[in-house]
Amino acid sequence: MTQIDGNIKNDDALQDSAASEAADRPDAARRGGGTWLRWLPLVLLFGVGATAWLAFDLGSYLSFDALAENRGWLLDQVERYELRTVLAFVFAYALATAFSIPGGAVLTVLGGFLFGTLFGTFYVVTGATLGAVAVFLAARTALGDSLRKRVGGTLKRMETGFRENALSYLLVLRLIPIFPFWLVNLVPAFLGVSLRTYLIGTILGIVPGTFVYASLGNGVGALFDQGETPDIGIIFSFDILTPILGLAVLALLPVVYKTWKARRAAAR
């Protein structure tokens, strides 16, 4: 009788174990599905951008040849439908940034050409910031708390170091024109930067470079009349790059001061 009872208990235990495993499988599937869903917005942003660039040959439209050919029509649209043109430009710039479509420099020159240096700078910064925030939010959603825990201590250490001086580091990344804009949109999200800090750093960091290209665009009509095209490499010239690098150094001063203060305190 005892042996029969033992067999019954063993059977019950096996059934309970099987039922528990069966119940866990949907949870695991849901977690796996949830991970893919988190990555979906980011994948769509880059996927749609790459597809649009190739399918519609956007490179031929985002060029100075296209601007020179259509400048009369574009200026006419601004004169006749100024508000509509402004909204369309800001929206197009935001989409180009969100989908990481190449040609930001040409679009910025276009903004200066259509709206002048100051207004062109303002509209470009507005559109670029909106698009950058979209990428940031998509990247932050993709990472998620669970994925951050799996990555381990390396990311945690980087995250801690970056977050302590997030605004300074972000300003440097935005100011120095050697870092790809799409990459700088992603990195802060992976390192746990707050949306507020990201927003401030993006706006302040892209203004100088935007102003340079918008100024170039403001005089691009004269260049076209002479049969010339703008030199977007102008931002790397000594006279322009030096002040921008100076701003980057100023942005790093708080980091240098904090490091010096911490080492001095540790030495006591």
TrEMBL record:
The segment(s) forming the VTT domain are 102-218
Query: Is Signal found in the keyword set?
Result: no
Q: Which UniProt keywords apply?
A: Membrane, Transmembrane, Transmembrane helix
Keyword Transmembrane, does the record have it? yes
| Lineage top rank: taxon | Eukaryota
Question: Which residue windows are transmembrane per the record?
Answer: 39-64, 85-107, 113-139, 166-191, 197-220, 232-257
Region described as Disordered: spans on this chain = 1-29
Q: Which PANTHER family match?
A: PTHR46826, TVP38_TMEM64 FAMILY MEMBRANE PROTEIN YDJX
Q: Under what name is this protein listed?
A: VTT domain-containing protein
Source species: Symbiodinium necroappetens
